[in-house]
Amino acid sequence: MAQFDLNDDSVVVIIGSGAGGGTLGNELAQKGVKVVCLEAGKRLTLADITNGGEMFAKISWLDPREGSGDLDPNFPAWICKTVGGTTVHWAAASLRFQPHEFKALTTYGRVQGANLDDWPISYEDLAPYYDLAEDKMGVTGTNGIPRLPGNNNYHVLAAGAKKVGYTDYHTGNMAINSRVRDGRPACRQLGFCMSGCAIGAKWSTLYTEVPKAEATGNYELRPESMVIRINHDASGKVTGVVYADADGVMHEQKARVVCVAGNSIESPRLLLNSASSMYPDGLANSSGQVGRNYMPHLTGAVYAVMPGEVNLHRGTQMAGIIRDESRYDAKRGFAAGYELETLPAFGLPGYPAYAKPGGWGREYARDIEAYRNVAGLWIVGEDMPQEINRVTLSSKQKDRFGMPVAHVHKQDHPNDKAMREHAWKQSTALYESLGARKVYTRMPFSSTHNLGTNRQSSDASSGVCNGFGQTHDIANLFISDGSQFTTSAAENPTLTIVALAIRQAEYIAGEMSRRSI
Amino acid sequence: MSNEDLELRRREFLKIAGGSAFMSLVAGAGFTALPGTAWSAHHLKALSEDEGKTLLAFARTLFPHDFLADSYYGNVVNAVDEKAAADAALRQQITEGVARVERLSKKNFGDQSFHQLGEKARTRVVKTVEGTPFFSTMYGETLGGIYGHPDVWKVLGFEGSSVEHGGYLERGFDDISWLPKE
Ligand SMILES: Cc1cc2nc3c(=O)[nH]c(=O)nc-3n(C[C@H](O)[C@H](O)[C@H](O)COP(=O)(O)OP(=O)(O)OC[C@H]3O[C@@H](n4cnc5c(N)ncnc54)[C@H](O)[C@@H]3O)c2cc1C
Ligand code: SF4
Predict the structure, then answer these.
(1) pLDDT tens digits, A76-118
(2) Are residues B125 and B54 in the same domain?
């Protein structure tokens, strides 16, 4: 395992070890580039991962954040703070975007109140990297890897899908081993994917990318290292980062290149907090777009009390998907599309807490008593980027290092509302077609997909970075996580984050050897 | 974690998998009453006996399960009492909340105390205080206390941690039988 000096200004510093940062670090290290990865969270091993709610408190980002608009005021987003980032908690649905989704503006046209744009890259640009990402993550239904078997919750979804006339449904493309692969075991249907997979069947950078990077000798991971600020020189280039270690002691790590991969709330927070006299609005923010266009996806959930037992806690939590509604079809009355994916109730007390938040009384108790019979699904669709939905620095609260906490604002666009209504209606019909006694539709959980706050754009005035995630303003500063998404697409984002990171690594290594950065 | 460790853990699971199948405690549509005891309020630390009785009835009104003996709701009251003993502000919130609940009961239901009322009347009183900090405290404590209890998990069918049983791969993850044939 390598160790680099704080004054070594030949290293690439990566902030965050999740889907984007973890992948980028390994890809660069494999190419011989020296990497220091600074990660705010602690490093767990598989032995620390248990089956239960206690995992939430152990690895979630619990430092204060403020939410407004439609968000929970105290816990707007559910993100991890741990080595591996949110890939420790994630459910592992790994879908490619559809080609038209890279051309949202061209496809949907101008939507009032939305800040739509086309991506600077096309599906064809990313396709070879999707191939690499699927192979790296061992995605089922690709590379000859069999799909996972469906659990009870999936069988309900599939039977209902068939009844209401859907045709494109299956057990998904999952970064979960359906057989032993890459030194990791096959899924045993534990049913706690979103607490962390205790056997490592699910891909997480914690036990794939990070140890592989370390094995190259080119990579140093520093856990419990919270980056506070990115420094630059008089020419405007970034020169290093200031971070607090586990004891709160500040250090400066010099760098040749800095890559920001703290997820879509922390990444813009850090750029904004790095404001200087040269960059008074924050780094890479000449467009004013840093922090804007926050997209937590259009989401919602549905729980149904079925006529027979389902026991939905058994097995893979995201056990299957219906894709029929992910197409773009203007006839439905809204732009873009959505996916329907199975969702667990997170056991007890999860189900009574989530089916109808705040629900109580005799009738609700009766529906809770029917826990065994509950089936559930999650709606995930493309939401509209809006400039007003944004991450800013709080004027009220600072964290323990004196850094203003992130304030996150999100309010639904009318298109989001129309899509959610449509999805609720379709899902209700699906479960009722099988005799559901009661259907609960609910609003989003705290955001698990966080996108768009440092977006890619062809035009430097309408976004923060180019198609490689390189910021328009500062050539050696990169955005390496989901915050670079121009639009959110209907699909779960992580496969795309990983594909972009692989592509970015190739670009950074090339630019470094050409000495352009 | 090395690959070898992973393989080892996997083999451990294979060994322990396929053990005892889950035994349902449920017969037919109804639930067998859980053995429990009556609950008495006279040992409370911070709260009075009368306050305890009101809270007990309040907790049951929120999530009324006939199969649960009073002691399960009593555990919730004990937990609130513990916290109130350590937190003067909470103590005050509870006392004021209880006083309001009692006032509403007595005023609207013939001078009866909340715990003496039938479920319908209790429900009306609870509705009136819904949204207050007192309600939120009792809601959170009751939700967590009742549905976090392993006895309740057993009756309702949540099977808890599965890794030590090798997951559900051989324990019914796809045993659904009532669906129309595909
Ligand atoms: C419950 C759940 C289920 C999910 N399921 C799916 C799914 O099925 N499919 C899918 O595609 N996506 C899923 N997601 C989303 C997925 O996890 C994220 O999209 C993905 O992990 C984001 O990658 P990232 O690199 O942007 O950030 P992350 O993976 O969140 O990594 C960011 C890392 O940066 C660190 N960090 C932040 N700021 C700093 C700082 N200043 N200094 C140092 N370190 C810092 C954080 O501690 C964190 O470890 C799910 C998320 C959750 C919560
Ligand atoms: S269901 Fe599979 S992926 Fe999910 S936690 Fe279990 S073993 Fe891991």
Answers:
(1) 999 999 999 999 999 999 999 999 999 999 999 999 999 999 9
(2) yes
Q: Which of B145, B109, B105, B111 is nearest to B129 (CA)?
A: B105
CA A107 to chain centre: 24
* Residue B85 maps to a domain: yes
Q: What is the pTM of this model?
A: 0.94
Is B180 a member of any domain? no
- Between A and B, how many residue pairs show a Cβ–Cβ distance under 8 A? 160
**Residue B3 one-letter amino acid:** N
Report if residue B139 sits inside a domain: yes
Domain membership of residue B44 (yes or no) is no
Q: Please give the residue of chain A at the shortest CA–CA distance from B122.
A: A361
Boundaries of domain holding B128: 49-156
Interface test with A, best of B163, B171, B181, B182 (most A CBs within 10 A): B163
Residues in chain B: 182
Same domain, B65 and B127: yes
Digit-coded pLDDT (tens) for A351-398: 999 999 999 999 999 999 999 999 999 999 999 999 999 999 999 999
Contacts of A187 in chain B (CB under 8 A): 167, 169
Phi-psi region of A291 (alpha: psi -120 to 50; beta: other; left: phi over 0): left
Task: Answer yes or no: do B173 and A152 touch at CB < 8 A.
Answer: yes
For B6, name the nearest residue in chain A, comparing CA atoms only. Answer: A184
- pLDDT above 70 as % of chain A: 100
Domain boundaries, chain A: 12-513
B66 touches chain A (CB under 8 A): no
Same domain, B28 and B54: no
- How far apart (Å, rounded) are the C-alpha atoms in residues B105 and B114? 5
What would the pLDDT profile of B27-71 be if each residue is shown by its tens digit?
334 677 887 788 888 889 999 999 999 999 999 999 999 999 999
pLDDT band at A243, cuts 50/70/90?
A: very high
Distance A463 CA to ligand 1 centre (A): 22
Closest Cα partner for B180 from A148, A312, A316, A158? A158
Q: Grade residue B182 by pLDDT with cuts at 50, 70 and 90.
A: low
Nearest CA in chain B to A352: B143
B148 touching A (Cβ < 8 Å)? yes
Query: Greatest CA separation found in chain B?
Result: 72
ipTM of the complex as predicted: 0.91
Residue contact A315–B159, C-beta within 8 A: no
B12 and B66, same domain (yes or no): no
Number of domains comprising chain B: 2
Closest CB to B148: pick one of A311, A349, A351.
A349
- CATH superfamily to which A12-513 belongs: FAD/NAD(P)-binding domain (3.50.50.60)
Are A239 and A426 a contacting pair, CB within 8 Å?
no
Tell me, yes or no, whether B101 and B146 share the same domain. Answer: yes
pLDDT class of B11 with cuts at 50, 70, 90 = very low
Atom of ligand 2 nearest to the CA of A196: 5
* Rg of chain B over all Cα atoms, to the nearest angstrom: 22
As a whole number of Å, the CA-based R_g of chain A is 22
Lookup: tokens for A366: 């009766």
Contact A371 B157 (CB under 8 A): yes
The answer to whether residues B13 and B101 belong to one domain is no
- Whether residue A328 is predicted with pLDDT greater than 50 in this model: the reply is yes
CA distance A183 to chain B (A): 5
Residue B73 near residue B107 (C-beta atoms within 8 A): no
How near does any CA of chain A get to the CA of B163, in Å? Answer: 6
pLDDT at B30: 66
